[in-house]
Structures are given as C-alpha cells and as structure tokens.
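Example record

One chain of 1422 residues, shown exactly as stored in the release files.
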Amino acid sequence: MELNRFTTFFVLFLLVFSQSGALFSASANGQGGSVYLFSNGSGSITIPLVANQTDTNFSLEVPRNVTFEAAHFYINVDHNDASPGQVALDVNQDGVKEWAFEGAGFGDIGNQNTFFNDYTAEDVYSTGGASSMPFYIPYASSIETATASLNFTSEVSAGLRQTGQLTTYESGDFDNDSFDEIVVLSTVQSVTNSQAAISILDWDATAGVTSSSWVPTCGSSNALSVADINGDNYSDVISVAPSANLVCVHLYDANNNTLGNATPISLSSGLISALVGDIVGNGGADILSIHQNGIVSFREYDTRRNTFSDNSTVTIDINGTATPAQLVGLTGDYFEGSQGDFTLIVVDSLGHSSQISWSNGVISATGDTMDGLSDNLVLGDIDFDGDIDIFSPTLQGYTLAENTASGWSTTSVLSNLIFDNTTMADHDNNGAMSLFVPQLDSVDGNAQTLDGNLTMYNITLSSVNATMDTLEPWTSPTDSMFVDMNGDGQMEHIVSAGEDTVFGLFIGSWESIGVDFDLDGQLDLTAEGYAGDNALGTSPLSVIDDLSLMTNLLVSQLSSQSSQPMDYDIEMTSLIFDFASMGHGTFNVSSLDIGYDIDFLVENNPAAQGNLTNIINQLQTAGSGTIVIDLPFTSTKNGSLHASGLSADYIPGAPNLALPPAPVLQLEILTHEMVSFSWQDEIEFGDGFIEFEVFRVVSGGVLDLNNPTLSTEINSTIDPNFAPGESYDYVVRSLHLYGVTSNLSARLSVTIPFPAPPSAVQGMTVVDTPDDNGSSFDVAWNASLDAPSEYRVFVEAFEILTLENLTELATTTTSSASGIFSMNITTTGDGTPLIDRTDYWVAVVAYDEYGNTSEQFSSVGPVYTLNNSLRQSNLTLNLSSSGSYSSTSFEMSALDSLNITVTLGSEGLPLPSQDLTMLFEAGNFLYSMQGTTDENGVWYAVSVDDLTELSASFSEFLGEASISVDYAGTAGSESIQPADESSLILTGMGVLRATLSHSSEPVELNETGYYSVEATITPELPSQSSVLANVEYDWSLTNETGNITESGTVEVKGGKVSLTGISNAHGTLHFAPSDGQSWFLVTPESYSYSFAAHTVNETENGTENQTTNQTDNQTNPPAFPDVTLAGSVSCEAVTYAWEGDGTDSPITCTITNPNPFAVQVGFTWKNIPTILPPISFEPSPLPSSGPVLTIPANGTLEVEFTPVRNGPSDGLFPGMQGVGYELSLTCFDDGTDNCTGMTSSSAATEGELQWTLSDPIIVPNSDNGDTSKDNSKGGSGALVGGIIAVLVLAGAGVAFVLLRSRPEEEDWFEAFDELDESEDMAPVAAPRSSRSLDEIRSSGDEFIAGEPPEERRRTLFDEVDGRGSVEDYSHEEEFESEDNTEEATEDDGTSVDENGTEWWEDEEGVWWYREEGMEDWAVWEE
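Predicted structure tokens for this chain:
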C-alpha cells in the first residue's frame, strides 16, 4: 500500500516537473534562463474582450528569486477580426499602464474610423482646393481595405426655392455687397396678395438664399429692368407695363435693406418696351423706351431732384425711307465692355436694327445698323474678346452678330431649330459659350417626377450646333438665367420651373469636383453635377469609388509619409484626402473605414517603471517556485486580440528593492520671475539611485506620474516657467534601478507674486474724428516705458475716477513701430453709440501681462464728438403780400406789402447763425440783401408795407421777376455740423399798376372824318412814368356791324395814349394793352371811343348842309391818301463830357408817322466816314440790312443812339455838335394794294442828330500878367484865339468827317466849320461891335490893315475841307498871297482871306470881320 502511494506521488511529481520544464528554459539550479510560453503553455493566445471590462484570463508564470534582464511579447492585429476598439494592459491594475493603444485619432485597433479630432465625419470648406482633417494609420501597418463616403454641397446649395408662379426675373446687386441678387415679378394674386408684385432673392453665407416680402408694383407689368438709377451704388428696378404706358420705379432703400415702394412714371403712348440704363454716362440710369410709329423715348434721371426729366425722343424710320418704322425689339448694354458707353439697340418689324447713343446732349441713331434680327436678342461674349455679341433667332433660322472694332458683322443661318427663351452662358466656367433652350416635350403634372430639360447647343460666331448634353435642374423648366450669386466664379443656374402646385426658381451651380488619395497632384476620382444638401430636393454631389482605388492609393501615400512616435513604442503616420472643386462649397467625409494588419511590441512604457521587465522584477520574491503575473486587458468595444512572441530572459538572484526615503522640500526663492526649492542630498536615497522626478500641477491638481515636469540628478531645482498670480503644487520623488521609486514628497504649495504694475500712460489726446459722420473720437497716447502687455481704453459719460465696475471699450497690444498708439472710438464701454455734442471722459490704462495696473491712470474729459460730414441743407421760403402770391409764384407792384421768412435746415434740424443772401431780380433790376438765421434757423428777411421801403429803386421791379435765396454752406464748428450750399428761387412778376383816364364823350370827327383821341395813364409812382414809354396798346376800329376795319399798335408817349385817324360816326375805336406786357396792370384794362359826326356851323350854306345831312347816313370810307407824308424826329437833349468817364447815355429819339397807314422805316447816315470820328453813334433798333421795321398808322417809334468813344475829343470844339441823317417813310402794304395806287408812296426828310460837348477842363495859368484894360480886351481875344488854334491844330487829321460832309468828297470838316461858325464860334453881336465901316471910322477907331486873326488863317483843316493842298501850298505863295491881299485892300485898310471874308483890326487890337452878304461889320469873338 505504501509502495503504491509513493509510486502515485512520484508519477504526479514527474508530470508537474515535466510541465514546468516547458515554461522555463533552465531549472532553479542557480542558472539563468528564459520564458517563452504564456501560463497556459502556449506560445500565442487569443484574448476575447468585452467592452469596458477587464480580462484576466491570461497571465505569465515566472520563477522566483531571479532578476529579469529583458521581457516582451507582441499584440497581433488582424483587420478581419472584430476590433475591440482601443485597448490597454495594466499588469498591477494600479493605473500605470504597461501598454496601450489609445488616444485621440487612434480609432479602433486594426480599423481606423476617426480623424485627428476623434470625429467620425468631417466637413471641409473648399474655395477650389482643400484637404481633409488628417487621420492616423500605424506606420508599420499594411492597409488592406479602405472606404469612405465623399460628398460635396455647393456654397449656394442647389435646389428649388418655392416662390409660386413667376412672370419674369432679372438680376442686380441690390444690397451693394458685390454679389448679384435675383428680383422676381409675379402677377399671380394668390402668390403676392396683389395684382403684381416684386421680391428679391438674396444669398449670404449665414442664411443661404432668402427672399424679401412682396412689394406691389404696376398692375399690368410684364417685364423688369435693373440698374443703379440714382447713382448710390445700389441697384434699383423698374417694372414695365406697356398696356398702361407706364413704368413703376423701385429705388432700393439701403437704410432698411428693402425695395422701395413703386413710383409710377408715365411714358408716351404706344409703349412697346422699356428698360433703364445710364446712356448719359452721369452715374444715374435713365428710362429708355420704344413706342409705336418708330419713336425711341428717353427720360434722364435728375440726381439732384430725384426725378425723371421730360420725354426726349428720336424717330427711327424704315431703312432708306422717311416712313417711321414699327419697332418690335429693344435691348441695351455696355457692348464695348465695362469701360465703354451704354448703348441701345432697337429692332423694327423688318429685322433692321438701329443703334442709339448719347451725343451732344441728345439721343440719336449712330448709323451703326444690322439686318436679319428679331425682337429676341440674346447677348453674350461669344468669342471671349471682352465685348458683347448678339444671337437672334428668327423665323427662318438665326443671325449671329459679331461686335468688331469697325462695327457689327452679321451671319444669318437657315435652320429649323427652335430657340424660345434661349439663354447664352458659360455655364460650367470652361471657357466656352453655350446656348440653353428649355425643352418641355411632356408634362405629367407630378412635381416629384422629372420632366423636360435645358438642352445645350454649342455656339460660335458662325454657327450653332446641337449636342447630346442636357441639364436637368428641376422638372418642367421654362426659362433660365446664369448669375454668380456668391462670387466664386461659378454661375448659379437660375431656372424657373415646376408643375402641379410646386413652382419657383431652381438655383444651383454646375459643379465639378475630385479627390486625390495618393497626393500626387492628380485627381483620382471625379464627379460633376448640381450639388445640394437634400433640404431643397437636390442631393449632394458624390464621388464614387467603384473600382476600390482608395486602398492602393492610400498604401502609396502611407509609404511616402514619415512617422510620428507615440507612447508604448507605437509609431503613427497621418494621412489626408486632397479635394478640388470648381466653385465654393463643402466636402463631407464620413463612414471612414480603413482596415490594416500590424504587430505591436509590448515592452516599453512611459511610466516610472519604464518597461515590462521592471514590473516583473518589482513583483519578484525570495524563495523557490514560480510567480503567476496576470495580464489584465481592457477594451472599449467587444472584440478580440492575439498575443504571441513572448520572450523573458532572467539571471539567478532577486534584485535589491529597498524603498528609498521620501524627499522633503524646502522653498528657497519665490519671485515673479522664479521659484527655487531643494531637498535632501541624493546620497541619502540609497543604492541604485538614477535621478529625481519633479512634478508641478496647479494647486490641488492631479499628478500625471508618467509625465514629470522635469528630471534632475541634483537635490534642487529652479522653475522660471509660470504665470505670476497663479498657485502651484510641487512634488518630488527619487527614481532607482528596476523602476523602483521613493514615495512622493509632501506638496510644496506656492503662489507666484506679480511684478510692479506699469505707470500711467503719457501724452494722451482725445480729439473729434475729422471729416467723419460724427459719433467718433480719435485717441492717441505715447508708448509706456514700462513695456506693458496691453492698454485698455475706457469711455464713459461721467468722469472716470476709478476703474472699479467699469468695462473697457477696447484693448490694444503694445506693438507700435512709431512709439505712438492710436485708435478710433465710436461707443462707450457698454457698447452705447456716442452721441454728438455730449460730454464724455476717456481713460487709457496700461496693464501688464497679468492684468495689473497702477492706481494712477490717464483720463481726458469732458470731450465730445462732432458730425463733420457734409450734409445737405434745404431752404424754405414763406412769402405773403398784398399782391397775389402762392407757394410757387407771386405778382407784386412797388407799393405792395411784402413779408418773407426763410427757414434753413438740414436733416430735419435747424441751422442757426447762418448767413443768407436774398436777391430780387427783374430785367436789369437787382436788389440784394443779407441776413442771418436765428436759433430756429429762421431769417425774418422782409416785412414792409410797400417795397419802396426797402429801396426806392423797386419802382423798376418790373417784368419777369425772381426772388432767390442762396446759402453758401458752412464748414462746421463746435456747435454745428458742416452743411452743403443750397439755394431756392421763387419766380413771379413785378407789375406796374396804373390808372387810365379818358373822355367818355363821343369824339367829334372833323369835316373830313379825321379824329384825334388821347388818354392819360397815371402810374402808382411818378418815377415810373418813364417806364410807360415802353407800353404799347393795340387799337382797332370797328364799324356798326362790329367788324374791324382798321387796327394797329400805338405806344404810350409822355404818359398818354394818342391816336389820330379817319373814321365815320358809326365807328368805335377800341384800345387794350398789347400782349406780352403782363407786367403792366392798368385800370381800366381796355377802353373805347365812339364818334360823333362833324357839326356844321349854322351860317354855312343851307343847301350844302342839307346835302351833307343826306349823305351822312351813307357809309363812305375815307379815301386812301395819295401821297406819303414825311416823318419827323424829335430827340432829347444830351450833353457829353469832354473826356469819356463811362457815364455816356444814349440819345433817345421819337420818330412820328403822320400818316393814317403803317409805314416802313428807312434810315441812313448822310455820310459814312472811312476814319471813325472821336464820337460816333450806333442806332437801335433802326435796321440796316435786317428785318423790315414798321411804324403803325399815326404811331411812333422810339429809337436810341448809343454813343461810341473812338478816341479823345481833341479834334472837336466844345458846344453843339451834329451828324446828318436821312429818314424815309414808305407806305407799308398790308395786302390791300392801297400803296401801289399812290402817286408818291415814300417821303424822305433830312435832319441832324445833335448833342452838346462839354468844355475841356483847362488848368489856369499861374503867371502874373498885366491886368490892364488893354490887356483884358486885346488879350482875351488872343487867349481865346490861341486856345482855339491849339485845339484846331491838335485835332488835325482826326476823322470828324461824320459831322458834316461834302457831298462830292464825303468830307465832314466843312460842315464842322459851318457848325462852328453858326453855333460855337459865331460872332457875338455887341452894341459897339456891329456897325458899318464908316461908323467905325467916324467913331475915331484907328484902322489897322493886316492879316486876319491866326484862328481864321488857312490851316490843316482847310486842306481837309478841300480849300487847299499841302503839296501846293508854300511859304512863298503865302507871302505872295499876303502881298496881293494887302494890295487889294490898300485903299480902305481891309484884307480879304481865301474864303472871301473881309478883316480889319482897330487900334485896340480888336478884329472886325464881314462875310459875304453882310452889310455891317462885326467884332470877332469866340
């Protein structure tokens, strides 16, 4: 029995021993060995894992009392296995992991399904190219499978925007954001709740495509046109209603970001079509329209008055005829490119086109024409040369018109293709134009099925060709437009479409996208089409990897990329996808699934123990036998792992693992720049010491023992890397061989102090921002020498004494190259906008990087902002008067009262203390006055009972008149915002009120039927009497039946209306002011005279009286005169200064027609000099070669002769002057042929236009001479004669020829001499100076013979007058003549000059003369 027991025990011992031999490569005989098998005796194991549970089913069994020198094994990953997600191994389950596959972006082990950020899906925005978020793949792995979902949605997400049925739509940049919006017109009342309305569809990056509310417009509109009408950079729109001859203008309201209400503008009748465009080129847009009868109409937009001007038209005729064309088509654009001019093209019913442009202030046809067009004009740059070409489908085919440098070149092609609602565009931005035509072969009424398409045609300048390509944006498309709504270079396709009850605009771009997997710059997969987001019925555009190209391409990328080391000796490589798109949009990457195979080494770790070897050694104990070490794995998902390749080498003897002491920390230095502390000397920590590990965490923070802050071999450390003001905990432990560590030290807690705060800033200024719109400060200050981290700016409406509870308005960094900081401020600290002219205080405070500042800070205040922008001013004038007036006109006389107030304001606010100027104008009348507005912006300019209180000159305030007010604007001040200049004008009439008085008794005719009537006109003011001379009255003579037998016009002369003529007792003479004299208001306005027959004296022959009485009852009109009576001229007396001083007034003359019929006036000067005299005259309005000038029957004509100074007056004599004229009156034929039967139809008279020339200013001679009687007598004559001689000689050669002329030589000097003799220099008869020679001799006066006075001797004037020749005259002849004269008069002591005048000189030296025909002698005096 005992033997059996021993045998059994021995067998069991052998079995156990043999199994132990399989686990260890050496026995416990004191030799080393290796462990290759797991505790289950297998070299590999499969570890099934359950999510978030620890699996301890597998372990290592190792011998005791040994020291392991190395230990590791492998984790084998197969992509075909169910991945357990992320996995970790914690041998001691102490929280210190010996190995782990975990971390952000790691994904599931063996199956990558996340990006760096741990997201399983990623959106990537593309502006043409983009890269995905990276994702990790283990560097040494082998990629076996790769799939992902790759989709693209365009920035303007494609799909149908349901708007209801639309009539038409256009595009424009309404909100001035540089992107086009769509404006739509609907005439479906159920859609818009009005007969017709418009709405805008706008896109922005935040809200996508949104639509505005409907704005009612012209009820019968059928078209839209878009342009910037008022030049504010915001597009505006008009709707066109041809049936109503109307357009409705909608200006965009930039303040409210909405379309303005409709402003109806009436156009000419027969409206066919209209559009808006800046044809004038002034920055606004004008209304251009075509009408029946070939009319092209133009209405310019007035940007100052915000309205359209009156119609201006041009008529287009049928080509080659003068017959107006029937216009059918209209288009306009900048055909020569954006730098050219806006031009209009109109097409008539015969296919002929005309080009309309702006030239010389009007619209006109340029002559650049085409043929073969229709009313359908499709515009586009077919050849991409920068200008606009035309495609026009016709009944026979189509016409292509190329825009060339020399004009239009057309090609007409016969074709049976139908091009209704055709659009031309480069729809995919590939550099080629295409035509798109909606095709509706069948419609099933179901909005969910796709019916119809946009058929695409290729177009060149010579032909249009069909293609196999179609676009299918939505069901039942009817029209299209191509507009870039988001500025990405890709045209959004704007397609009206829909059926059943679903209608609207499809909006979406045609996108082309691709992806590059291996990063070689070539797209590996591509796709094209519309790209939506499913929300509007269009799905995203997807890239499909039908050929599984991604796997191999990612393998290529993996092999070309470097690796990145991670914990636990894991190396990762980051991979990406590169995307490309034609337009802007978003790529979405989801369902990422990349399967890979790899073996991970389990050996090293980041913890203090450092590796698997140390952890096994730390578990060693003395004695014999084995130790079982569990391998606890955890995972995030259900799955399995494989482990293999275990290798653990050891040597005999367990390691010395004595526990070292814990460090004791002591603070050495604590400043805002460093922390220094120490602990025991390293020798106190025993054998196997390696280093100290120092850990720092925020106060109370959790330590990460795998990641020490720093390591050191000495027993102290310095930490300069911290933030002052923060609190930290420091912990230290020692690290020894085999991963042995001391216990952690107690925490050393410190709070880092702050440095000294920066001082207050210097040089701070706060000023109102110049030339701005107000509510803005400019703040500046000098950089602080304390190098603060930032400056904080505080703005408050109260004085800033402390920063407590204040919020800074702004923070600025301390970088400033100039050393001066500045910023602009528009709000207070709480965000409230600044209010102009409100007191504010501003503080700028320097802060260090820790938010600390000095208690002292810089503050400025009070300061206030000003609006410095130039605002528009407006003037309002309020007028009242005893005359008639309204808000737009007035009618006042000089004696009317007047009250005027002017109000000046801007933007609803008054403008006080502003200077204004008021100007009254009427003809040549000007009266100006200035004033200043009060605090309410009002100027009480005028308040008078009659206008003469302002100035007596208002008696001349007559005719078309105006009252204007001008404001020169203001540059602004501290109390007022700058305002622009403005003006207003009120037009009216200045009137002369007068009273007319006339006899109410019948006017008695004389025996021949002649009458003479006179009425007196008395003006309000006597000073206005002269103005009446310009008043005309129309008169008419009617017979007993009321028929006019004679009529004419008569002028008021001397305040009287006078007329003479011939009538009979049955006539009535009517007077009324002539038309065109609205300024003349007379009471009564019209009057008349009746006539009484001539009363025969009773002493006259009874028979004759009886005969006369018998014939009086017969109507015998007076006989027409046989001859024309000569007219008469009466002129006012005028005196002119010797030297012209600018005060010369014209000579006013009245020509009187004494004839009872109208006459034609002829006027000529008697002589026309070749050399202009010192003074000449210009008559007005006497004709020379102009229109016929007439004077009515018995009428008068007032003529003015305006003096012209042609030179000095040195050649003239003072006194009366004259120039001869000839006046002729000729019977003016009024169609009755009365003039032709006259014996003499013309009569002429001669006369002289006379005036007086003042004496020259003579400087008195200061020499003292003899004042005796003899000197006064003889000397006065000599003095006068000397002066005259000087004047005569000084004027020699001056062309005074105009004054009197010799008929044969047109010489005026002789006439001048005669004028002198007869007027200025005629001998003055004195009691003693006019007697016979005998009387003179008998009186005892001594007779002295000799030459006449020098003044009467031959001079240069004699030569000019033809009395001698300078060439023929010599001194000898003069002496000889003198001798002969003396001889001739030797007997009686007289001498005779060449004119036949006798001269002699008495003993007193007085000259006597006697001309031919004179009996007595006369004293020669000046």
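Notes: The chain has a mean pLDDT of 84.
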